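The passage that follows is intended for readers who have already worked through the single-chain material. We present the inputs for a multi-component assembly, then the predicted structure in tokenized form, and finally a short commentary. You are encouraged to pause after the input and sketch how you expect the pieces to fit together before reading on.
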Amino acid sequence: MSAQPSFYSRFAADRFYLWNLVALVGVALALGHAAAGGGLLSEYAINALGQFAAFAILALSLDLIWGYLGILSLGHGLFFAIGGYAIAMHLLKHSYLTTGIVPDFMQFMGWKQFPAYWVWFEHFPYAVAAGLLFAFAIALVFGFVSFRSRVNGVYFAIITQALVYVAMLLMFRNDTGFGGNNGMTGFSVVFGARLGQSSVTALLALAAVVTLIATLIGCRALVISRVGAIMIACRDDETRLRTLGYRTIALKLSIWCLSAVLAAIAGMLYVPLVGIINPRVLSPELSLEIAVWVAIGGRGRLFGAVIGAVTINAVKFLLSARAPELWPFMLSALIVLVALIFPNGLLDLPALRSLIREFVKRPGAGRLTRFKSAS
Amino acid sequence: MWSRLLAAVALFCLVGAQSSAAQQPLDRPTLLRQLCGEAPEVLAGAQSTAELAATAGEADLDWMQAVLFALVDRRLSCGDDAVTLRLPAGTIVNASTLAPATESASGRTPILNLRSRGVVEPILAALNLLVGKDANVKLEALRAVEKKPQPTLLAIVERALKIERDPQVKGAIQSATETLALRSPDPEKQKIAIRRLSEEPSTRSLTLLLNLRSEPAYNANAGYKAALDGAISSIERWLAFSNVLATIYNGMSLASILFMAAVGLAIIFGLMGVINLAQGELLMIGAYVTFLVQEAFRAVLPGLLDWYLIAAIPIVFTVTATIGMALESSLIRHFYSRPLMSLLATWAVSLFLVNLVRVTFGTQNLQFVVPFYLKGGITVVGDFIITWNRLFAIGFALLTLGGTYYILRRTTLGLNMRAVTLNRTMAGCIGIKTRQIDRLAFALGSGLAGLAGLALCPIYNVNPQMGTLFIIDSFMIVVLGGVGTLVGTLVAAIGVGQINVLIEPAYGAVAAKVIVLLMIILFLQWRPEGLFAVKGRRK
Amino acid sequence: MGTPAIVVSGLTVQFGSFRALDGLSLAVEYGQIHALIGPNGAGKTTLLDAISGITRSSGGSISLNGLTELTRCNEVDIALSGIRRKFQKPSVFEALSVRDNIALGIPSARQAGLVGQSAIDQRIEATLDVIGLAEQSARLAGELAHGQKQWLEIGIVLASDPKVLMLDEPVAGLTDEETERTGVLLRKLKHPARAIILVEHDMDFVEQVADRVTVLHEGKTLFEGSMKNARLDPGVIDVYLGR
Ligand SMILES: Nc1ncnc2c1ncn2[C@@H]1O[C@H](COP(=O)(O)OP(=O)(O)OP(=O)(O)O)[C@@H](O)[C@H]1O
Ligand SMILES: [Mg+2]
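Having made your guess, compare it with the prediction:
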């Protein structure tokens, strides 16, 4: 009989996913060891791992709407930045109350007091809630007006790009009270502990990796559920789905807002690790790059997004130390190559191998359908 | 206009009345004695020179100029017996006859104090207007006259106005007359001058009149006050109007560039569903090719340098169209069924091009020679100047519009393009080579972007990053205008260009962008398919 | 006869200046298979589009059970009121399994009258059996043959037990044997509480299954009655069947 397999067996069906999850747990353990004072990983490696994890969450948030719902956002940096700015405000105010040092941007503007909307940001839960709520609200309003008027596909992508561009211009202004051009930096204290200590860094990185694991599990649960099937159906044929009685606008709106919140969480994890945020995270280029991570890793596969984000950023880290001017050329070549040869991203490599194997065994029996792409 | 005519007649009568009393022989020794005296005497001498100059004969004018010049230059030597002066060339001459002489032993060089200098120098400058030959000398002189307007100089300047031939100098003298007439002790003359100024509204005339409000006569004389206030408010009205015109004009030139960039995007998007994120970089390449053409002219044909912009037109179009065609056949064609991936692929191209240009040319702005035919402009009203460089962009866009319209509506290529836009499969079935149409359309769109880059060279900065400046607005135009309609793109380009320019001065560039984006999002609520969408089946 | 399921009156649909439907009126009864036939471009698909809310009409009305005015509803509400439609171009979700496809046919269990997961599973199994794809339930829909996709789409629209079922060319591109099986399937679907609208170009198939035919031409009704009479009608022969 064709009875539906149980949720757990479906969850475990993807071996590739499981093995990667196990590997991530290993990374988390190593970071935990480092936080406890172990010297296995260098300070630089710990920090890089934390950043990669934050980027991976960001990529996942995009994969959720692009890979599974077919909505490409070229403005996801906006939500990332909202999270980042919220946590930066918290760190600055917290540091100020602890050390008494007036933040740079206020000195620069000649302000004696924090602007009114900075109130309560010294409380961590408030800062997090405010950041997530703001990201959610922006996503809700923008998503509602766009999906309601059926702005889809390329239109949606370029409007989101305009959105992030406008936000960047706005944040470049010095009078907005968010640090303007130079952004915010000079955080010294987090939860009462000095930032920059290696155990603190390891804890921050650990937090990022644990959040990544949780996000991965949550996303997997979502995409193998009935909602996941509806998402894929909506991606492939929205009109069809609507004529079956599904309110696709509500569906798209919910997932879009979820994605925005995830991106904001990624931003919150990222900023304490790098110790700075400025309007450049809002540049259209960064938002496009997020889409590139997902495309190169393989969209519509959760670990595709993660692997894409980690590989690209690892190469970028290595190159920016040695030959920074080479990076844009590498990146563009990589995009073109992947887009032309592996339409479903690097994760198609195994598929390619299995195709060849099958082909060698029984010529002509390859399952070519897998190579059809769904953008 | 009547008042202006009247004023001209009045002015003519005045001048005529004066010149009828002309040509009395000049009493040179008396004047010289005054100029050699103490400060009050020098002033009086200078003043009477100025008064006499309005009617003096040519020889006397030359003499006056030589003497005052020597006085200012400290080349005058006042002896008890004779006054001599040293010509700039070095020869000593008698100051009265200008015949060669020897310097008197008791010669003393009078020194002008600051106040006298302030009076004598403008008089000398005014004399230069009458005797000078070189236009630049005269323009320089006018600046000196206007810096400290002295009503006594009015007569000289009016005389200069009558004999001047060079139109540029004449215009400048004209405005100097007005400045001087405003200070004239004769209230009638003053009123006429005010009226004349109010008929040529500009920021300059406004400041001139506003300055008059601090004169004592303003509060003393009610009629004068009314005339002045009326003139000021009339100028202000005209200026407001001319500012609107100037803004619209600037908006039109921005819209022209945006239109040229967006029309290519729209054609390509309509045909293939691909938004070319590298369109901004094609525009940038267009500007860089223009630059290379300019440099080639500089090296090979320096005499024809001014014509590089015209010569660049076919070159830019060919180069960018070829690049576009190469892009299409090597890359973009693989993405027709995957529009979202095509965004990333074209972004990769844009990233590559920006960095290539950055590495080869550097990041600084390019220096362009503004050809003589694009320098300056004509003043229409108030501060509204039709500048040639912007007019060039507008005219260019109009030609592009005409050309594109012609191609789309009157040629087989255009017919085929429209057919493929409406129904690709069907068009393929009736034997249209859709692949070839795609490639040509891409070439056309890219070429148009290149031309936009050329047209903006005389107006905007050219650097590797410039593409991003225009590309987001161009997207918005495509979204706003709808796909595959020339009219939609045109209207949307004008809208976006105007809104940007209108909002910018009041609320800043950022606000302009925010408002444009918000308006587009709101607009899509009402018309999701854009202004002039071609209707098609949803499924 | 009770109230008709669907009553279309004076319906006009315009694309620019072109009228795809021009004041069309039509009633579809419960318990019947009502066939719409007519030459290409007659407006058959456009009528289904208008009923299912995909295309807006510019005049006239469509009512369900004489109560609900459908021209004012969006496609989701129309679907939820029990109207399902199979598209002319087979539209199944190729990236999902056959089973998931059928499951998507039931947007809300309560509305389909099902209580509990087991009832839903039963309905899915039953539907799979009816369309004969039980064996394929774990395969991806994209891997199915054309005929199987047509059946799968019928299964999707059937799963929620619709009151009104609209089938746009269900046997187009099928082999004779598959057409035969589809005919059997269609007759099985007939039910006193269900109205079926069938759009088809295969006249023999229509004659076999339809209780009533409406011949459309240029957006207007040309003939209404039984298929046998339609074949004798000179107007229909002229514009559609040929001599
Ligand atoms: N979105 C649209 N825009 C413009 N014209 C359209 C649109 N949809 C349909 N039409 C036109 O309306 C007419 C009716 O089309 P429709 O698809 O309803 O015909 P049909 O009877 O289903 O034909 P077929 O038997 O070929 O399926 C056709 O001429 C078609 O070209
Ligand atoms: Mg049809």
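Commentary: Chain B touches chain C at residues 535, 538-539 (CB under 8 Å). The radius of gyration of chain B is 33 Å. How closely did your sketch match?
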